[in-house]
């Protein structure tokens, strides 16, 4: 991942549209297709909500949806979907680096990912890149954290 690519300013869809696009992009890359029922199951929503959102994403040219043929991401949809998935992955790396419990990582990313400015995303990306490149510094931070936790007990 190149520094700065996540914070690049391009018009982004609304938070819930982002969740759908992110999930559709993942399903397409894992299985080659994304069915309304699969999307509904993964997002924990009713299939009729998926159909509504998919129609909206179609109107905004993120994908092409035909009722009996399924959906295909457009170039724009693929580009945005990829960035959403990369942003999610970077945020997971960030939370792991600062020591967040594994059990909280996924839900916390889902909670914050739509609400960070592009500058903040760039800063976090740089932070992750810096520390992933310097494991000895990371270990110093881990030791510091463990001491802090031990002294709290
Ligand atoms: Mn996500």
Summarize the structure in words.
With 153 residues, the chain is mainly alpha-helical. The chain has helices at 15-31, 36-43, 47-59, 75-97, 102-112, 118-132, 135-152, and strands at residues 63-66, 70-73. Strands 1-2 form a two-stranded antiparallel ribbon. Strand 1 (63-66) and strand 2 (70-73) form a beta hairpin. It starts with 14 loop residues before the first helix and ends with a helix. The structure holds manganese (II) ion (MN).
Describe what is shown at a glance:
The chain has helices spanning 15-31, 36-43, 47-59, 75-97, 102-112, 118-132, 135-152, and strands spanning 63-66, 70-73. The protein is mainly alpha-helical.
Please render the helix and strand layout as text.
Elements: H1 15-31, H2 36-43, H3 47-59, E1 63-66, E2 70-73, H4 75-97, H5 102-112, H6 118-132, H7 135-152
Antiparallel strand pairs: 1-2
Bound molecules: manganese (II) ion (MN).
Can you tell me the residue ranges where pLDDT is under 50 for at least 5 consecutive residues?
none
Query: Given the structure, what is the number of helices?
Result: 7
Order of helices and strands: HHHEEHHHH
Radius of gyration: 18 Å
Task: Please describe the biggest sheet, giving its number of strands, its sense, and whether it closes into a barrel.
Answer: 2 strands, antiparallel
Helix content: 55-70%
What coarse outline follows from CA principal-axis ratios? elongated
Structural class: mainly alpha
Q: What small-molecule ligands were found?
A: manganese (II) ion
Distance between the termini: 39 Å
The average pLDDT score comes to 90
- Main sheet strand line-up: 1-2
Number of strands: 2
Strand fraction: 5-15%
């Amino acid at each position: 991942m190149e520094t700065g690519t996540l914070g690049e300013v391009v018009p982004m869809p609304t938070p819930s549209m982002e969740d759908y696009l992110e999930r559709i992009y993942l399903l397409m890359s894992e299985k080659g297709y994304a069915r309304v029922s699969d999307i509904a199951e993964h997002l924990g929503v009713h299939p009729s909500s998926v159909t509504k959102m998919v129609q909206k994403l179609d109107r905004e040219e993120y994908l092409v949806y035909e009722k009996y043929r399924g959906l295909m991401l457009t170039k724009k949809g693929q580009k945005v979907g990829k960035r959403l998935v990369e942003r999610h992955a970077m945020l997971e790396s960030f939370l792991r680096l600062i020591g967040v419990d594994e059990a909280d990582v996924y839900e916390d990313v889902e909670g914050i990912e739509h609400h960070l400015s592009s500058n903040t995303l760039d800063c976090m990306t740089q932070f992750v890149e810096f520390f992933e490149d310097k494991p000895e510094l990371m270990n110093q931070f881990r030791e510091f954290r463990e001491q802090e936790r031990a002294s709290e007990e």
